[in-house]
């Protein structure tokens, strides 16, 4: 089942050469774990609520690969290039399994709500 690392980056960041180096080096850290950018600070449209931050989303084959990438020496080596200059929130979330049916989730919720 796929997994995703999602970052919400605050726009108050001051651009710095370290950020450019981080962006140059991060794709090489994905390769051993099957990761790839799905979204990388592209323009977005707010459909509900507010969202002023930038979005980065990286896809991996599974949670294990995503966690292994996050904990890898190669990635941890470049983390300070980002973290010294960009604030934000980063989460790891598993995707839904193949054939996921939201109506079954809704049915389970209805049963739960019945008490």
Automatic annotation (TrEMBL):
Coiled-coil region list: none
Gene3D superfamilies: 3.30.70.100
Residue ranges of every copy of the DUF1330 domain listed in the record: 2-96
Pfam families: DUF1330 (PF07045)
Domain of life: Bacteria
Alphabetized InterPro entries for the sequence: Dimeric_a/b-barrel, DUF1330
PANTHER family, per the entry: BLR0684 PROTEIN (PTHR41521:SF4), PTHR41521
Annotated protein name in UniProt: DUF1330 domain-containing protein
Source organism (scientific name): Streptomyces mesophilus
């Amino acid at each position: 089942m796929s997994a995703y690392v999602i970052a919400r980056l605050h726009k108050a960041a001051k651009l710095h050469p370290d950020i450019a180096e981080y962006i140059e080096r991060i794709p090489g850290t994905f390769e051993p774990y099957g990761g790839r950018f799905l979204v990388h600070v592209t323009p977005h449209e707010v459909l509900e609520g507010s969202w002023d931050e930038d979005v980065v989303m990286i896809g991996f084959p599974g949670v294990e690969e995503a966690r292994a990438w996050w904990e890898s020496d190669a990635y941890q080596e470049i983390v300070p290039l980002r973290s010294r200059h960009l604030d934000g929130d980063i989460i790891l979330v598993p995707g839904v399994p193949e054939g996921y049916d939201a109506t079954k989730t809704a049915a389970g919720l209805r049963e739960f709500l019945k008490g």
